[in-house]
Amino acid sequence: MIDKQAKPFLKWAGGKTQLIESIEKALPKEITKKKFTYIEPFIGSGAILFWMLGKFSNLEKAVINDINEDLINTYKAIANYPNELIAILNEFQLEYHAINEDEEAKKEYYYIKRDLYNTRNTSLSTQAALFIFLNRTCFNGLYRVNRNNLFNVPSGKYNKPTICDEQNIFTVSAALQKVELLHGDYENTLNHASANTIFYLDPPYKPLSNTSSFNSYAKDDFNDAEQIRLRDFCNSLNVLGHKWILSNSDVKGKDINDNFFDEIYDACKIAA
What we know:
By secondary structure, the protein is an alpha/beta fold. It contains eleven helices and five strands.
């Protein structure tokens, strides 16, 4: 168990802090009574990961993965170079806050940093600092890229946002020392499972409407075919005896006649 509770270092669309109570109720109790492995194939902001690390002393190994290489590299920078990252973030924070009320100057500063980020030609720590800076100052904290994998979220309107949360970065860095960081397709995480493993799967959500899609999180869409491939992966976990919990959008709550998840997970328990 870690001494202090790490918390997400990013603002993240679809963050799972509000689901912790539901996930705790759904966790198979026999898993956590002995040494176990926790695997999160779609890591996002890590709310459930940090809660698991702080909650369960029997958590022997954690494995996180994401298709977004920039996100995983940010985790790597925090894990391995927290002091260097904090120094760069502090510089960004001082410069951004010094602009004060000049919104046009703030926008110009933001777009300079966004262009630099999109070159992907800086050091690991600088790229991670740019990732966090953009997350803290872009519109609604969204992460969106185009087909060329270029981050294209416009600037937000903030006065003096917290860009460098030094204490939490050190706490997150300490927590990540027992976490294996992977980048790639989620199916590869299966290679890291042990005999007593729980998977928490939080994929890009199925949009509730044509205008509510956040699937531009990566340059390739996570469409209905991908949702079905994920179902097949979960079936493989069942065959191998691994436990898993999955969260997704409530399409039936939006449209009572939308049976997509009821049909593909017809053999599973679906909680509201």
